[in-house]
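ENTRY TYPE: protein
WANTED: fold as tokens:
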Amino acid sequence: MIAIDPSPLPNILGFLALACYIITLLPTILRIVFPRTKETGIPQWLLKHRRIIGVFGFFLALTHGFILVQKRDIDFFDPKTFLIYSQGISTFTIFTILAITSNNWSVKKLKKNWKQLHKLTYLAIFILTWHIWDKMSGHWTYLSPIAIMSITAIMALFLIRLWIEHQNQQQKKMNTTTKEVVRR
């Protein structure tokens, strides 16, 4: 039998943080996986507001984590804590780095490294999936199935995006090779 957690606030905040995170991933995924969405203007709108949505999501995640640390009286000096909460700590660390560098000053100072740094968001997809699954196992809330389905769907779309980009790169290489052969 699945027990329902009686204190929903941390779960609601975590779910809203997840929703914000997914929204920040959508512009590129929609553009590549569903190219016709460009015509709707949705990817452009999401891209324009990605930073603010991401920073807002970070503060929701921060509040989610803070409430749970207080509620569970977590001792960060206990080595077992890092084993038990490694996914949450790892994801939170990534999101902290991304939130701190989500501004024009960081883009200017870090230049090409900024984009490389922000690719950490794709690692977070997998760690966050593990975090949700692990922490919700055995005590699901009404939001848990929606969260699991949402993160799994965005992970699948991200993998499809990678596959499409790989196929496009292969096609470009093949076209370049064909042009070089024709020139000779």
